[in-house]
TrEMBL record:
Domain of life the protein comes from: Eukaryota
Annotated source species: Citrus sinensis (Sweet orange)
Annotated InterPro entries: Raptor, Raptor_N
Protein name: Raptor N-terminal CASPase-like domain-containing protein
PANTHER family noted in UniProt: REGULATORY-ASSOCIATED PROTEIN OF MTOR (PTHR12848)
Signal peptide positions (record): none
Claim: Repeat is one of the keywords in the record: yes
Listed GO biological process terms: TOR signaling
Positions of the Raptor N-terminal CASPase-like domain: 101-250
Length: 303
């Protein structure tokens, strides 16, 4: 709201000028107003040079400001008239936009941070990005930092979906994630379940699309995760080589539903990077830059 108030205050003085522009379409009314403003400026001339300069500048701004009003041109009106008001049945938009809106009933947040211990397959630069959910994990004790980050992530999602049920798992094992997924699906029933995975403290996903948890570094196959969470679902994978997981889901879908009990029919995947990429480590951005863009876009855009 503060940004909107600022923009409104900046353009409040142009409202009167815009009204003159709308009134003088096809007539010389605008020229009369400009001549009247010019006469007023010349009559207010005094021996004070600064006053004369200010008056002249004001007259110039009034003369040229209407030219910046472009939203009333015919091309904009024609574009709005050609835009359909209802949902499109054809075209690019209809391919990804669901016809029926679906409620997200449950959100599962899995954070594998392992604070103060770097993954064995990641070489970090110095200085390196450290902030998770806008919290510096090294500003407090590791366990307290982990709990604070998990709480902040839950609050960030709650701004977008306050009515969903949120469950957080911090550095969990495979069994804990299995229990979490089954609980979320049981509660959500036919509604969508969102599964958020932060893998900044564990190795990258394997070539088979397996993700790592904290059960003696035993990877979790995506097929198991999909069979627990079922559909409809949406996954957010904030980790390096996240494209590996997407490729694994595609292979599951291509393998055939007859040979596999799970389903990727109504499944949305959001990955932080491609299979061959690593997460950015620039110090000026948070470590979870992908999550920040999703949950706190305005803060991230200003940053």
């Amino acid at each position: 709201m503060a940004l909107g108030d600022l923009m409104a205050s900046r353009f409040s003085q142009s409202a009167v000028v815009s009204n003159h522009l709308n009134d003088d379409c096809g007539s010389a009314h605008g020229d009369v107003d400009l001549r009247r403003d010019s006469d007023t400026a010349s009559s207010s001339y005094t021996n004070n040079a600064s006053v004369t300069t200010i008056t002249t500048t004001t007259t110039t701004s009034l003369a040229y400001l209407p030219q910046t009003v472009v939203l009333c041109e015919l091309r904009h009106e024609a574009f709005e008239a050609s835009t359909p008001s209802g949902p499109s049945d054809s075209g690019l938009v209809s391919k990804w936009r669901p016809k029926d809106r679906m409620k997200t009933g449950c959100v599962a947040l899995v954070l594998c941070l392992n604070i103060s211990v770097d993954p064995p397959d990641v070489i970090k630069i110095s200085p390196c990005a450290r902030m998770e959910c806008w919290i510096d994990p090294f500003s407090m004790a590791p366990q307290k930092a982990l709990e604070t980050i998990g709480k902040n992530l839950s609050q960030q999602y709650e701004r977008w979906q306050p009515r969903a049920r949120y469950k957080v798992q911090l550095d969990p094992t495979v069994d804990e994630v299995k229990k979490l997924c089954n609980t979320c699906r049981r509660y959500a029933k036919g509604e969508r379940v969102l599964f958020h995975y932060n893998g900044h403290g564990v190795p990258k996903p394997t070539a088979n699309g397996e993700i790592w948890l904290f059960n003696k570094y035993i990877p979790l196959p995506i097929s198991d995760l999909d069979s627990w969470l079922k559909t409809p679902s949406i996954y957010v994978f904030d980790c390096s080589a996240a494209g590996m997981i997407v490729n694994a889901f595609i292979e599951l879908h291509d393998w055939g539903a007859s040979n596999y009990s799970g389903s990727t029919r109504d499944c949305i995947l959001l990955a932080a990077c491609e299979a061959h990429e690593t997460l950015p480590q620039s110090e000026e951005f948070p470590a979870d830059v992908f999550t920040s863009c999703l949950t706190t876009p305005i803060t991230m855009a200003l940053r």
